[in-house]
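Entry 14. Structure prediction run on the chain below.
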Amino acid sequence: MKSTLCAITLLAAGALAGQTEAAPVSSAGWYYTTVNYYSGSPSFSHMGPYSDETSCEQARTDDYGDGGAIPWDGGPGCFELFENQIDAYNELLEHWGLAGGDDNGMPSVEAEMHEVLASVNVLIEQHAIREYRKSMSELSNLGKRQSSGKR
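Output returned:
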């Protein structure tokens, strides 16, 4: 009985933890950014993709006041992400999620989202972030295979 209760508790905790972190954006479409205050710190994620701006704006309007994550008003409401902008948007969400601190406040996007994403894409290329992450993933997977006895 204790093991069943423990298993149910772990499953519930896992389900809740999964709700606090959104998966990275993986397909083009219309999105909006959300913010959630978990333990007093802002956590950013996305909603979408939507097929058109009207559907996105309607979903964004409906999302206010539902508890949990709310649409973030620090940037454009809904915006269209193209395939070449997905990595940059995921980088922004990750950076905002890690950039906590008392004097940090909320991030702001004063320019249009596409201009910001273009700048982030330049940084990704300049610093070879894709290659670094691919190498780290390969190393991580190698460690998992070796610890399980597979080679």
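The chain is about 50% helix and 15% strand.
Filed with the rest of this week's runs.
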